Amino acid sequence: MTGGTPVLLAKKRLRPGRYPLCSPPLENMASSDQIDLSAFRLHDKDTGSADVQIALLTRRINQLTDHLKIFRKDHSSRRGLLKLVATRRSLLDYLKRTSQDRYKSVIEKLNLRK
Fold this sequence. Notes:
Blueprint: H1 26-32, H2 50-70, H3 75-98, H4 100-110
Helix pairs in contact: 1-2, 2-3, 2-4, 3-4
């Protein structure tokens, strides 16, 4: 011995089934990946229009929301979620200013409030 007290490893007691090891449960992933991007595209290779970006952000926001329901203390993911929501909000404001009909269709397709 080196003369010191032995190091005790503290085990954190977790309730069984409470925290998954790698990813969220499969039922949550299925609900967040239901957004079909082809409905938002203006043409076949459209990846950058505001409609498609809003749909992609909404999908990611749903995934992060499911993640934060499980890991409530994950504050860095919460900060990322707030940044994504702000970005989506600014894109929605832009779409509302430039094209009312596209704005209304995106809101209806994604079931967003407003």
